[in-house]
Amino acid sequence: MKKNLFNYKTFVLTLLWLITADVCLAQISVQKLRCESLENPLAIDNTQPRLSWQISSQQRGVMQTAWQVLVASSPEKLTEKDADLWNSGKVNTSESLHNPYAGKTLKAREKCFWKVKVWTNKGESAWSETANWTVGLLYYKAWNGRWIGFDRHFPWDNEEEQKLSARYFRKEFEVKKQIKSATAYIMGLGLYEFYVNGQKIGNQVLAPAPTDYQENIQYNAFDITSNMNQGKQTIGVILGNGRYYAMRQAKPYKVKTFGFPKLLMQIHVQYTDGTSETIKTDESWKGTANGPILANNEYDGEIYDARKEFIGWAQAGFNDKEWLKAEYVQEPEGKFEAQKIAPMKVMQDIYPVSITPKGNGRYLIDFGQNFSGWMKISVQGTIGDTIKMRFAESLQSNGELFTTNLRDAKVTDTYILNGKGKEVWEPKFVYHGFRYAEVSGFKGQPSKESFVGRFVYDDMATTGTFQSSNALLNQIFKNSWWGIASNYKGMPIDCPQRNERQPWLGDRTVGAYGESFLFDNATFYTKWLDDIRYAQKEDGAIPDVAPAFWRYYSDNVSWPATLTLVTEMLYRQTADVKVLEQNYPAIKKWLSYMKDRYMNDKGIITKDSYGDWCEPPLTAEDGRGVNADQKHPSALISTAYYYHLLTIMTKFSVLTGNTQDSLYFRQEVAKMKKAFNQEFYKNGYYGANKLTDNLLPLAFGIAEGEQRKQVIAQVVDIIENKNKGHLSTGVVGTQWLMRTLTQIGRNDLAFKIATNTTYPSWGYMLENGATTIWELWNGNTAAPKMNSQNHVMMLGDLLIWYYESLAGISSDTQQTGFKKIIMKPEEINGLNWVNASYQSPYGEVKSYWKKEKSSFSWQITIPANSSALVYIPVKDKQEVKEGNQKINDSSNIKYIKTEGGKAIYEVLSGSYHFKVN
């Protein structure tokens, strides 16, 4: 009996263990596998890419203890026994981000399938779903074809007005074997659309991403296996101008132009019998510029004549006898590299809120929202009828389009009907920034579907949400989202509507940090840092615009500081040390360049270009009709920024292993702080006692002790008394305004500034009809030359304040990438609740706090494999409950201390509900 009882107990215990193990496997899973921050990359120019993943679990306190990665050449071999590229074995580490591949040496075009499992303190996961990446064309000689194009104007082109027709190219060939796989690699400059057997490949638009084509050129890769079969095949490519054939060429000393559109392409076909074939661009291709796209200019619009359409031009059997033999052309100077960022896409369709007839076939369409993209039309008429579409951000007082602020950009699309029934059209190679459209030449009665706005931006996920008890804050957040998305165009541009649309560094110096809470933009900004480095001159100079489509090298500090500050942002938000290593040499070189050229004997950086760009006039009326394009250089700003960059480099030098540099930077920091205070500190204030002059020394830690107290008093006095509760900062000061007010304990002033509806404020923009963010605080009164209604530079650090101060979601500065989260919402009278979320590299962080008369409740979620320092507003920790239970130190919640009226706890992953009565 005893023996049987023992066996029975063993059976029960074993059964319970198995059940528990199954539960653990079910509760812990691995998801969102990424290779080099890309979800499904088709071409990576890296034989040792870094792998990341997220752990999902409903359990609390889940921390990774180890991982195992399998990589194989096929899904069938993706087992521990057969993984032929890499079986990492069990790697004991908690790191789930940026783990480098360490398997067999990979070859160009090699496809790799991978999966991962993790061990945690709560159990072991099952294997993840399978993901894959493909190595790109690693070498210049891997490109077998030659560049083709037509390096000349045709009689119908208008060289003076930069009206250049699109180029069409086609190639027919025959496939006699069964296809195993087919991959296309394409560089179509300036922009392209790619077709196989009549079908457009991919849903990308305005591809590839723009670069300085003298420095680097991006190629795209496509799996076209399913688009091909045995028999006759046809490849078709349309080339648009983009930034390659520049929109304006009247000032070659300022504007770069690169030549006529051109194409390099090859298709690698693998057959089931083990053989392969490459189809490449050569003189066997046929081409023409005499097609329906008569002109395409990013500033001026697209002209399309449907009467000239080639029916079936990208399909086999098309009669191309009238087409020309493709010509070999000079290849671009830049090096070839795989595009690392996601392409632009039509991300949303927007329907009109009103369509107003204006007589004689003219209609005014209001989409209710300022955005960037274009309009798709559905029309019917007779052959030769012409539809013209003009675009604008706002209306004149007489109800007509206001276009003066577009400068000389014509922003007009033209469609000429072929008269063959219902015709649906949208442009291919232009975009506009607009809320309103005027359509002329339209016959019949339009419907809602006749005019559809197509919102275009880079295909990146929205990562942040924000709601609060204050409706104005919520609307500013919404406007910000629309403005940021509108200006993502393969690079961060300043505006999408006028004859500019340039990637100004100064617009994103700090703004990129705030944007990172709203969008999954790490890869996007990593690419932009590449653009900046490519634009750096041999002597170290960094431009004001990058890619350097405009030759602006003004040698200020606050614009090129973007290279350093965006690098710092990416490291803090993603924990990517590689971004530090890539940019450290360029930053160091530029700092040395600026010191050698512009530091005087007193240790002051004397050179600045823009000052506190676009400071608000004293009143909106004072700025009526005044051109805001005014520069007021400030040695205080250039020196303060230089000092701040030196302090950042003291950290970068340690993190990148440049320890010898660390001592130098520390010494420079000490010398410059002394020089700055001697030069700019007056009797209790800095410089000219402007708000920005005083904010920067506080934000950067230059003002200390009693001096700091005096400057704080000046800042408060300026805002409360001189400005009557308003800001008076331009681009530079606004980058540090909200966080500095928080640091000095005046969140009440920050909240006042954020919720003002009178001039100057974000609320003032909304009160005057803005649906995005204006370029100027007085955008409704300034001279129209410079008053874009869809800009982001005046957001400054507002969105950072939304998340880090209002929602209480920020990354620790030591355990970056949200490995440790700082959850410290600020208490502000007049704000009763905030509900926000953020998709961090480890998973979703949530913060929903609410205060009532006698209680404070806070629901938070911390993703697996991370932890948080949670600051709960209470003087006595005994008053804090979690899930209606008093908190006793446990494995998941640990009391640290009470400080500044807040009980501080270390909290491991999971969802919690804290209450304080």
UniProtKB/TrEMBL annotation:
> What superkingdom heads the lineage?
Bacteria
Give the enzyme's EC designation. 3.2.1.40
SUPFAM superfamilies cross-referenced by the UniProt entry? Six-hairpin glycosidases
Query: Where does the Alpha-L-rhamnosidase C-terminal domain lie?
Result: 808-884
Q: Does the keyword Hydrolase apply?
A: yes
The Alpha-L-rhamnosidase concanavalin-like domain extends over 359-457
Against InterPro entries, the record matches this protein to: 6-hairpin_glycosidase_sf (IPR008928), 6hp_glycosidase-like_sf (IPR012341), Alpha_rhamnosid (IPR016007), Bac_rhamnosid6H (IPR035396), Bac_rhamnosid_C (IPR035398), Bac_rhamnosid_N (IPR013737), Ig-like_fold (IPR013783), Rhamnosid_concanavalin (IPR008902)
**GO molecular function ontology, one term from the record:** alpha-L-rhamnosidase activity
One GO biological process term? carbohydrate metabolic process
Q: Which residues form the Alpha-L-rhamnosidase six-hairpin glycosidase domain?
A: 462-805
Which UniProt keyword terms apply here? Hydrolase
Q: Which residues form the Bacterial alpha-L-rhamnosidase N-terminal domain?
A: 177-348
Give the reactions, separated by semicolons, that this protein catalyses. Answer: Hydrolysis of terminal non-reducing alpha-L-rhamnose residues in alpha-L-rhamnosides
**Could you tell me which PANTHER family the record lists for this protein?**
ALPHA-RHAMNOSIDASE (EUROFUNG), ALPHA-RHAMNOSIDASE (EUROFUNG)-RELATED
* Protein name as it appears in the record: alpha-L-rhamnosidase
Q: Which organism is it from?
A: Pedobacter puniceum
